[in-house]
Amino acid sequence: MQPAPVLCGIGTSLPDRVVTNDDLAARLDTSDEWIRTRTGIRERRVVDPGTATGDLAHAAAQGALKSAGSAEVDLLILATTTPDHPCPATAPDVAQRLGLTGIPAWDLGAVCSGFVYGLACASSFVRSGAATRVLVVGADTYSTITDPDDRSTRAIFGDGAGAVVVRAGTPDEDGAIGPVSLGSDGSQRDAIIVEAGGSRRPLTDAHTTPDGRYFTMRGRTVFRHAVERMAQSAEKVRAEAGWSTEDVDCLVAHQANARIIDAVAARMGVAPERCATSIERLGNTAAASLPLALAEAARSGRLHTGDRVLLTAFGGGATWGAAALTWPDVTPMSI
Ligand code: COA
């Protein structure tokens, strides 16, 4: 019988520094009231200078391995938009720091959908028999690419990392990952973009302005597409899993904005109390948002062993994806 991918460990890592809405309002033209009512965010974590995405990824991965009860891994995928360097990828360095030198390790660029894309890759490797234990890490430090003077992005994003271990098992086990769906639409490439620093607009280009280095987004467009794509892809995997809407114990949507999460749930007919959220304390942590929300839901008792979980995400590109799984008997670990 073909092996089934089974989630068997989860770890998280957050920077110590908390930045509240009032902290932001002290230097930007914004307010706690505006940010809370438009996004549901009260505070976010931000790295100190010198701490890189790879540091958070490494710590989250250590937590996931501890949670899984084994340091054995034969593949590592790191979803991130904020690698330690433009070149090389950060994943091999994280693997080496974990004592996993020699295994295949690469970065995956699907912006805020990166974790679902990584989970899909891990599932395929496990199903095909090409890997038996895969570390999937989602880690981002958007504070390093957002403009300190831009209230519209600075208020939304936070830094963090989450990681899971996916092992070969059977489809009837708690933790089994079922249907996965991915998609993209390149016509939306400008809606979320860091204009400069790639080959189309190198930093060395004489026409590159300092602003080109920063992350920008068209908030309203992103909002609309995020709701539509996340609801559509989650509905697709729900149907493929053979679950009714009432069967869904927990919907974990990308933590982009509390109003986006509410709109996705409303479209799907999932009651708000069945939605996991970590946005209030963490903001949008990009590729880390789903594993961080899962870990928080498990820690708070919101998620129970055997619960039917739908994950759904949307990110720059545009990219989106969803996955269905049952929740395993695991304790999230943070290092
Ligand atoms: N404080 C105060 N005002 C702000 C602000 C802030 N932190 N951020 C933006 N504004 C202002 C805008 O500058 C704009 O001002 P203007 O009308 O004078 O130009 C006004 O608020 C309205 O902006 P708009 O973008 O229309 O507001 P909105 O209700 O759509 O909320 C977002 C803005 C960014 C919160 C919302 O669009 C959003 O969450 N989009 C999705 C973002 C996201 O999830 N991105 C990542 C997805 S992977």
Automatic annotation (TrEMBL):
Chemical reaction(s) catalysed: malonyl-[ACP] + acetyl-CoA + H(+) = 3-oxobutanoyl-[ACP] + CO2 + CoA
Membrane-spanning parts: none
A GO molecular function held by the record: beta-ketoacyl-acyl-carrier-protein synthase III activity
Annotated spans, ACP-binding: 255-259
InterPro entries named in the record: ACP_syn_III_C (IPR013747), ACP_syn_III_N (IPR013751), FabH (IPR004655), Thiolase-like (IPR016039)
Main location class: cytoplasm
Residues covered by the Beta-ketoacyl-[acyl-carrier-protein] synthase III N-terminal domain: 107-186
UniProt keyword list: Acyltransferase, Cytoplasm, Fatty acid biosynthesis, Fatty acid metabolism, Lipid biosynthesis, Lipid metabolism, Multifunctional enzyme, Transferase
Superkingdom assignment: Bacteria
Hydrolase is among the record's keywords: no
Pfam families linked to this entry: ACP_syn_III, ACP_syn_III_C
Active-site residues from the entry: C112, H254, N284
Pathway named in the protein's UniProt entry: Lipid metabolism; fatty acid biosynthesis
Record's subcellular location: Cytoplasm
UniProt-listed Enzyme Commission number(s): 2.3.1.180
Domain Beta-ketoacyl-[acyl-carrier-protein] synthase III C-terminal: 240-327
Subunit structure of this chain's protein: Homodimer.
Domain free text: The last Arg residue of the ACP-binding site is essential for the weak association between ACP/AcpP and FabH.
Role this protein plays: Catalyzes the condensation reaction of fatty acid synthesis by the addition to an acyl acceptor of two carbons from malonyl-ACP. Catalyzes the first condensation reaction which initiates fatty acid synthesis and may therefore play a role in governing the total rate of fatty acid production. Possesses both acetoacetyl-ACP synthase and acetyl transacylase activities. Its substrate specificity determines the biosynthesis of branched-chain and/or straight-chain of fatty acids.
Family designation: Belongs to the thiolase-like superfamily. FabH family.
The protein's name: Beta-ketoacyl-[acyl-carrier-protein] synthase III
Organism: Streptomyces rubiginosohelvolus
Lineage per the UniProt record: Bacteria, Bacillati, Actinomycetota, Actinomycetes, Kitasatosporales
The gene coding this protein: fabH
